[in-house]
Amino acid sequence: MPKKKGSAKGKKGKGKKKSLKSGEVPEIWVKNLMKTYERNCKNVNTVMVPNLRKLMKDCIENNQMLVKIIVEPVPMVTKDDPQVQVEPLISAIRQERYTYLKDLHVWDMPLTHENMAAIALLLEKGFYPIRLLELMDCLIEPYSLDRLAKSFGFCSTLTTIVLDYNEFGDEGCKCLCQGLLNNETILSVSMCYCCLEESSGKMLGNVVANSTVRELYLDGNDLLCEGAMELIKLCVNKAETEEYERAEAKRQKEELEAEAALKEKEGRFGTAMSAGSGDEKPTSAGSKPGSAKGKKKKKGKKKKKKEPPAPPAVGPWIHKLHLADNGIDCYGKGGQFAPLVCMRLFKSLITHSDCLKELDLEDNHIGDLGGKLILDALTERKEAGLPGMKLKTTTRMNADTFSAIVKLATGLKKKKKKGKGKKKKKK
Q: Interior CA angle at 401 toward 374 and 408, to 5°?
């Protein structure tokens, strides 16, 4: 029997490759990137990342763009086995001008100054839309971090930086902060277990006040009470000022409403008096306010054009602050009164800041009085009608106080790090 015409058309349609709006075919882009990456690895006697190679093949089969890359080491059998390196991949991205990469992750790999310079050059080009850069446990040195931070001013798409488990200390933090102040897009910075001490608190406080950074993840450092206070001091001052402005605006609104109500009452009284004297005739049915609605012509709805999102605001606003295991207790320089003074400042931040969404103070022995201040702050925040927030604190306090805190503030979910546990801090 002769074949149906419709069946032949259906077979032809299946063979067509889907392309993007710009006309680019994802399969071709990823295939070229994979070939160049493989060639670069052979030239320097290294191996490709096995998981990345598999992901590239999947993207080629499914005709999808590769937007997320994870670089991680390969287990060694002998000392002479070739290892994974970052530079062949970065070179391949630049050689093929692969401008579809958005997230770059490097895990558990020592990064030399040359490697950091290669990543910095990728960011400095400006046309690679990288939004997330994660370099976790890469033995990054302060001078290498300084080279990377200098590239932040040229990258207008970068929003998130993760540098956890790199023990570059206060010197590295200083280099990073200088780069953050020159950037207008970075919103979130994570430096957990990076050996930061109290002097880093002041530098990070300056960054929050004078840049777009609004989320800080600093678990497992040694900021102590003094560093934590320096970090949030400017944010507290701004929150108190905004609270005063909100109270003033509310008072003025109430005064205007009371004045308008009084005028309306006087107007009704005057109308009633004139109606009683019979000077004015009652209004006709046609002059009723309801009749005017029928005469109005319906206007066609115009489609509103979508405007591009506004750039992030610069100012001392903190949205998410994680300070778990930072030595905020009575064993630091300030003695037994230090956590109390510190918690008073946190109380003011919680009470007055309407943008604060998350606060993590777990594994910091703030004591019963500190817990009571946190509870009072959450209560006052709720009474003031500010948005709810997530808060996590230590259990080492009065059981009733801790239970009340849990009821007023929902718990936080910890970020899961691949193959990472808590590192011991150097003292």
A: 60
Alpha-carbon distance of 381 to 352, in angstroms, equals 7
Q: Where are the alpha helices (DSSP H) in 150-223?
A: 169-180, 198-210
Phi, psi of 367 (to 5 degrees): 80, 175
> How many CA atoms within 13 Å lie on the side-chain side of 255?
6
Per-position DSSP letters for 209-267, written without gaps between them = HHSS--EEE-TTSB-HHHHHHHHHHHHHHHHHHHHHHHHHHHHHHHHHHHHHHHHHHHH
Name the 3-class secondary structure at 368.
helix
Average pLDDT, the chain: 85
Instruction: Give CA–CA dist 206/166, Å, rounded.
Output: 22
Give the end-to-end CA distance of the chain in Å, rounded to a whole number.
86
The dihedral over CA atoms of 201, 205, 208, 210, expressed in degrees to the nearest 10, equals -140
DSSP notation for 310-361:
PPPPPSS--SEEE--SS--STTSTTGGGHHHHHHHHHHHHHHH-SS--EEEE
Please state whether the predicted TM-score (pTM) of the whole model is above 0.85.
no
For 31-58, what is the mean pLDDT? 94
